[in-house]
Amino acid sequence: MSMTIRAVDATLLHDLRRRVLRSNDPSAEVSDVRDDEPAALHLAGFLDEMLVACGSVYPSTSPLHPEVVTWQLRYLAVDEAHQCRGFGANVLDALCCAIVERGATEIWANGRDTALAFYRREGWQLIEGSEHLSPSTGLPHTIIWKSLAPSTS
Ligand SMILES: CC(C)(COP(=O)(O)OP(=O)(O)OC[C@H]1O[C@@H](n2cnc3c(N)ncnc32)[C@H](O)[C@@H]1OP(=O)(O)O)[C@@H](O)C(=O)NCCC(=O)NCCS
Question: Staple 70 to which of 46, 56, 106, 152, CB 3.0 to 4.6 Å?
């Protein structure tokens, strides 16, 4: 069954964010202060009408190239029962396409170390020396980025 992706309000994603990224902790923070800013974009993936995947992007200064127009990816998550079927990659692609249309030439994220192999496959690079513990989860993360500039080759 193919997944349908559409833009949604961030509040619709709180439950999925909590289950997949916060061990379903009822007291965990699952929103970003920028969620309701007009330039933030939240994409959701549905199988029929069941929410199975999500991801959000926020305009942001690049930690690597502060001079370029860039966006931060957060809360990329796929329902555990539906992981490894390409849905995470599909949502990520859709987010990247949407921000390229808005002028982005780069995307960055704090990637949790357990997901770095996934991001590498999707063409992301690690910023050496940026390893840190996330203030919100205490889990090891690394700053990662991907160029979205048109290829010159
Ligand atoms: C990481 C995550 C978003 C990936 O989404 P997904 O739908 O499971 O992954 P996809 O099926 O799109 O993966 C694409 C490729 O990456 C691989 N992959 C997926 N997760 C991986 C992981 N954690 N480690 C290594 N490879 C991984 C898949 O096998 C697939 O490879 P293939 O194309 O050769 O088959 C999802 O597994 C998830 O929500 N994980 C828990 C939350 C999380 O870590 N989110 C990221 C926060 S920074």
Answer: 106
Model confidence pTM above 0.85? yes
Tell me if 19 CB under 6 Å of ligand 1.
Answer: no
Tell whether ligand 1 has an atom less than 6 A from the beta carbon of residue 77.
yes
The DSSP string of 56-97 is EEEEEE-SS-TTSEEEEEEEEEE-GGGTTSSHHHHHHHHHHH
Backbone angles phi, psi at 138, to 5 degrees: 75, 0
pLDDT tens digits, residue range 104-129? 999 999 999 999 999 999 999 999 99
Strands 41-47 and 50-61, by their bridges, are: antiparallel
Q: Hey, whose CA ends up nearest to atom 29 of ligand 1? A: 84
- For the record, the structure tokens of 24 come out as 């379903």
Assigned fold of 4-108: Aminopeptidase (3.40.630)
Is 89 a pocket residue for ligand 1 (Cβ < 6 Å)? yes
Does any ligand 1 atom lie closer than 6 A to the CB of residue 99?
no
